[in-house]
Batch of 2 targets.
Target 1
Amino acid sequence: MQPEALEALSDDIHRLGGLLGGTIRRLAGPEAFDLVEDVRGKTKELRADSSVEEARRLRDRLDQIDLPELRTLIRAFSVYFDLINLAEQQARVRALRARQREADHRPQVESPGAALQALRDRGVTADEIAEHLERALICPVFTAHPSEARRRTILEKLAAIAHELDRMERGDPVPAERARAMEAIAEEVETLWLSDTIRGTRPTIPDEVRQCLNIVEKNLLDVVPRLYRTVEASLREVYPEREWRAPAFLHFGSWIGGDRDGHPGVSPLATAEAIHLQAETLLSHYLERMDALWRRLSHSDRLMEPGKELLASIAKDAACFPELPQSPAHEPYRAKCRLISAKLRKTLEALRSVPSWTDAVRTPPPGVYFGRDELLADLRLIADDLERVGAQAAADGSIHDVIRLVEVFGVHLLTLDLRQHSGRHASALDEIFRSAGVCENYTALSPDARLDVLARELDGTRPLIPTHLDYSDATNEVVETFRMVAALLEERNPEAINKYIISSTTEPAHLLEVLLFAREARLFRPDEGISRVDIVPLFEALEPLQTASPIMEKLFSLPIYRRHLELRGQLQEVMIGYSDSNKESGFLQSAWALFRAQLDLVETGRKVGVAMQMFHGRGGAIGRGGGPANRAILAQPRGTVDGRLRITEQGEMIADRYGHPGIAERHLEQVIHAVLHTSFPYEGEQPDPAWIAVLDRLARAAYRIYRGLVYETPEFLTYFQQATPISEMADFKIGSRPARRGKSTALENLRAIPWVFSWMQCRHTLPGWYGLGGAVDEFLDEQPEALATLQDMYRRWSFWQTLIDNAQMILAKADMTIARLYADLVEDPALADAIFARISEEYRRAIDVVCRITGQSTLLEKMPILERSIQQRNPYVDPLSFIQLVLLRRLRAEDDPDEDLLVGVLESINGIASGLKNTG
């Protein structure tokens, strides 16, 4: 970051911090402000000269402060972090604008233009780029995984402050304009101080849908047309030898309201409501756009001659809406806009009824837009006619952007994925098969026998499931889910849902079970050439990842499954899970298993002529596959992306990446850049075969070290439950989903998000690095000369470089001095000492090997911006950790703790999450 940029960032932090300080003095009193400054100073001194005993003394001193004052401290540091995050966001926006001004016709780094120029320099032709874009797909998928700790109310207030900061950056505001902006910011800061920071009730599924839609509507619907214009301008500049109109390769998906794995609240009606809310939001936006177009397209037929096709379309539509007032006789484009708006309103009205499945297929009423094609046809009719009469500026203007929106979002907005655990399908079929006399105990059969039963049933045509259901509630819910999907696709929108994801896929039968349910609901009708939904296995744990390729190979050998694939364009999507594999096998082994599984799956598909499309289930934290998205894409095995990529955007990352339009646009540019780059691999990017052998060895060793602590040390679970706030997080109403699958407290049933979240809170950050140091140390003890190989791998192999850089980032956010104080919460001191000693020793080893591999003397030495950000935050994160320690000790000492004490703990969790900028 340039000195002037650092100065501007410091000015913003000082300005916002000053407003917060004034607010604290005014509303909490000067004594509260002095206490905040005193605690901050003490933690700053402690960080300069770290000592566990001094840390304990500070903790004990804070224990003398009463609960209201401690909660005031929590609020002060938490709001401060939210404001620092805004200042850093504004610095990113400022840097983006500066680079754009200074570009001087050179494409910006990590932009689509930069990728295209690099490909042209490597000899990739315009025809190859065009062919690639025609089949390309980039699809971020928003999930409601509970790792966004902030309330929607808080996010909206922070967005308002960001808007005012932006206003002061644009143009050259006069002093009065800057003063008004500062007044607005001061009002929002004051309101932040006086607002509850944690949720009083757990959000409902509609709440989560609306929170996501709030970001999409405010930012993405403006960003996407602009982004496509940037891509097309880059294509024309780099490949001027052909005309360009980029196909709609960018789409967006959602799991919110469709992900029912372990979530009892996601019913068929909840799925229908999610579809409804999305469509309602988008259609209302389109109506605003059409109103703007109506005002703009005032072209008169006295000055140009409209085409016969346009006039015929107007006459046909007008006959369907006789109640509409007469359009201006001489303004044909306005007339057509008014009729499109009438159709959009009728489509909105049709959303009011709840779809229901029956034996007979229903069709939508006339005049309703059923899918994107009819709306696109109407819009393109206007654009083409404008171009025909020579009104090129209008044809390329606002209507072009509306067409882009419809190409990307259809009339549904985000394509909803459905997800369910494989065990739910098997148990439902067990009951259905028993009732139908097919099989007495389906779940007791061997995997091969289950596959044979399913293949026989799918080869036949008899219905298994009666119209009126008489099964258990659990089985009925599975059947009704498929029927609701069929009703939504037949009555509402054929594009609203097109993926069904199976969690914990471990055998081929798990995919055929879904195909059988799809057939029973009319979603799979092979004789009619219909298969409406992609069936997507999710391979999560280590063994399923290692056996994913044989599972798919067996499926590809089945004629009925190949028929399904033929009807889905010979495309098989496979989802790979970063979260559960990390929790089960550790950071390094998980990353390597995911890498190898992708290579094997793509090769399996290539052999039989099936295109394999990867869906990456990544989280925000390093322990769940997080890190910079563009670097993560570049680190994928060559040949596994090939222009098609789906990737989850989870929890806090949605607001972080899409909450500001400038950052959303830049993020998507970087993703497009990375996908283009990795889709055209060249020989120099392939890893040396010797490196593969090195990673095989390191991954095995890291797995052994990780499992030795986490799963094979009986006392570890006690340490985890007592040294982290995992128990208290059950009351943290961060999302609608329960923290565990089922009621068991076993580690296997704990979801990956609270697992990572709790280790971040207690400053261990263990899931992002444990096992790496020991594995590399063992390797180098036997082969000291191999250090040069690991360093060469870091310089030349994106996968290894990204893995090491992600590890050093999360290691830098750990703090073993504070972590030791969390270990003090463990009731058995000997147990605490033993487990913590192993963790801290592995932490030391991990830092040592990262620095040796990267050639640094300290972590982040070559990443000064990130290093500075973490250093700036530590004096403010540390007080929250000390306060949380005090409150946890008080809370756990009481049989019937005061509600305010629990709220204080939850507020501290929220504040630490904001400070570390990682939750789950």
Target 2
Amino acid sequence: MIEGSMKARLFATAAILWTYGCGPAAAESVLPVAPNDPRAITVRGQGDGRADDTDAIQRALDAARDKTGHGIVFLPSGRYRLTRTVVVPAGVRIFGVGPTRPVLVLGANTPGFQSGVSTMVVFAGGDQYNVGKVPVPVPTVVPRDKIVRDANSGTFYSSMSNVDVEIGPGNPAAAAVRFRMAQHAFLSHMDFRLGSAFAGVYQAGNVMENVHFHGGRYGIVTEKTSPAWQFTLIDSSFDGQRDAAIREHEVDLTLVNVAIRDTPVGIEIDRGYGDSLWGKDVRFENVSRAGVIISNEKNVFTQIGFENALASNSPVFARFRDSGRTVEGKGRAYKVASFSYGLAVPELGRTGDYATEADIQPLPAMPAPRPPAIRDLPPVAEWTDVRSLGVVGDGQADDTAAIQRAIDGHRVLYFPTGFYKVTDSLKLRPDTVLIGLHPAITQFYIPDNNPRHAGLGTVLPIIESPRGGDNILSGLGLFTGRVNPRASALLWRSGENSLVEDVKIMGGGGTPTADDKPLGTQSAHSGDPVADGRWDAQYPSIWVTDGGGGTFADVWSPNTFAQAGFYVTDTSTPGHVYEMSVEHHARNEIVLDNVRNWEFLAPQTEQEVGDGPNAISLEIRNSRNLLFANYHGYRVTRSYHPARSAVKLFNSGDIRFRNVHVNAESGYATCDDEGCGTFLRASKYPFENAIEDLSHKLVVREREFAKLDVGPADRSIVAALSGMAKVDKLEEGFWSISGAAVDADGALYFIDRRFQRIYRWTEAKGLEIVRDQPLDPVNLAVDGSGHLLVLSSLGAKATVYSLDPAGPKDQLTLIKPTPVRAASGARTLLPVNWWNNGEFRDQLDHKTYEFTTLAEMFARDAGTPKAQEYVSPDGSIALPAFRVWQQGPTDHVGWRWSDSLNANGFVSGKQGDRLFVTNGSENVTYSGTVGPGGTLTDLKPFANRGGESVAVAGDGRVFVANGQVFVYGADGKELGRIDVPDRPLQLIFGGRDRRTLFILTHHALYAVTP
């Protein structure tokens, strides 16, 4: 009793100290003086750790956004007690200013932070799709009834820097920050003193740099980011977490120079999930159970890699959750020179298999920590405000000469928010440093049709750095205008120690302009969209050349007017790229030509539906000694245009690819007349191949893999063994075909959706056009009377109609949805391929603290009965009325998505029949039982390949389309592979004897009798 009483008094004393601001001393500030910015809003709170400053901080945040939707908030030194969640509006950046870092304090036992997960600071997003309501409110807000829209894939620039967080005792549900950002956002220079809290960050995104987590159950807990892009953590540390430093899944975690100490687990990947995890220079010290816990072992989305990891007193480097297998360290101190687990592709032109690589070497002692990956900016005392030197920045005055004089006379220049008009190149000195605080509203821009940038001539960049320079660019936006053919944003020749960080190449989404006009105002109305928009009509946005190199971190380059977003030529100076987003170009996103000694960690590209149907994600020419890790090659789900390869190689070799993710699926949250929710969809138009070597005429069909080493460019490559059966090309010249069905006589019907044609193929007559009316057919089925049931995307949601392929061309029967019938005896149509993932909605159960797995989500979705169905006129088949979501306008222009519209085709069965389907979000093929209401129940994993389609032969063999056609016995044992010249999209058995396997690819129809 005496001991218990003493503990109670000590706990109470500690609670009082935390509540009234006597916690640990604040860290040293990186902004000891507030930079001069007339547009910034300064928080006017008490800052004594006792008064409730929640309202004062929220008022400043709400007032900060300017007419462009962006702003800056300064938080002076002090201790700011929060009692409720503060919400950071999209586009707002918070900077701590003053001699010590300001501290956000959660006092002991603050109401609302005791159960579930409750966040002190929530970074919010805008109404990305103009849906009005908040479809998925943030569930971690205090109080719970406050409706907050989460940050989403359209949330840019929001940041917090130079602010610490302390969480007092008695707040076990507390998390300091929710930061589920898209692009060009960061947390930096922060200490999280967590005590007994749940986590420092719950839901992460984009970049965190120089952040340090002390205590807590976890340092970071996170799942997939809102746009499903990477999350990169740099120059950071964890110590004293009770369960794990980081708990995560599918966040595509990239670690650079991160230390993890005094915790049972370094990185734990959640049950039932994989991740693309890449760590460079990660230290594990006193990590008792495992440096990393790997889940979902036999899955392509599990891609784990480390380079130069160090460990001491950490006996197990990797532990596999499912099998219990471990990879042990060697001695008390050891170095993991390289580690890779996942699908390994042995060579170009080959398929992959699962492999573990672990190069572990004992060490006599731990080496000293490496220098930071991101160098510090010069002290604020060295900054010179350009406004004091005659630079105006009002968007009207020509600041070129004034800025050049400032560069010539001062080493470190600070640019307050403003638009700085530039009409000629600015030439940096070898030691020039240019600093801003918000790239969206601190821009250098070239006016349209600027005389110096007109006509044919050599490149004239906004900023040009000298060869070998020691330069820094930070926090600036660069806009080359709409029509300036000779323009480039940045011509970079600086050396290995140089830095380009937090720089946005303006153009595309999130672009405020000096003239307040939309980007497309220079339309020529020629009928050519490239000419109209002046796309692909400028030099590359960022051009590194002539021995240039250095570090490029948190850079976003989406300017469609430029020929490429990031262009590197003629250099062997090392380059380090961390979390770079390059998007929306008409031809190339990233190009390397005659380049050596570069690494790209977490590069992401995206091709939009309008500007990027022909764009290449990454093109490498005449280059070697390169590393690409956690690479994302994404095409938007709205794409309609097939594309061959994400990466193209020309005369290049000695390239290491680690953790490659080539995809075209996404999700969004919206509301309609049926309610609100999230919808996940997969496109039919990702890149067909991950990598294509034009010099060797070989491709890599695997779109998800952990490892590929491309050898020397001049090597000879032994031809891969051919598949188990030869395929025949029946027809070609299509845009993209799918949606196939077979009638009772074995005739094949299929759709070329772009041209709205329904074809038939028979051995007797070959190819015939059955219909070509503009009725937007997507998927087909054949009923018992031989008529086609057609699912169309035409209409407010979707439409189903029936037609007689032998009947008059102008006749069809519209089918209205009707209530689902019970035990009708009809065959139920179900998608052959599904996509099911938990984006936007938190999947963490706030009672059990377990995440819903992908398999559980799929079972829940597939097992949910549909209220209505579309029944063929003869009653023999029924298509469940899957809910259809609409993105964009509500008229005919909007895109429509559903499990049935997204599918490459249908499979069918009566209630009680067992069918095979694939789930692309897991890359798993399942069998399931057809149930009432269009359900698929009793799902059982069948194969760990689950790509575009699956078909079952009469003898029970199962054929899966996943880059090639993989053949399995009825017992799930892999029997072999059928190689197809193009990527197979849909498989279906037909022909007179039902033994012909038809293989539909984008542009050709093949057949084989396996």
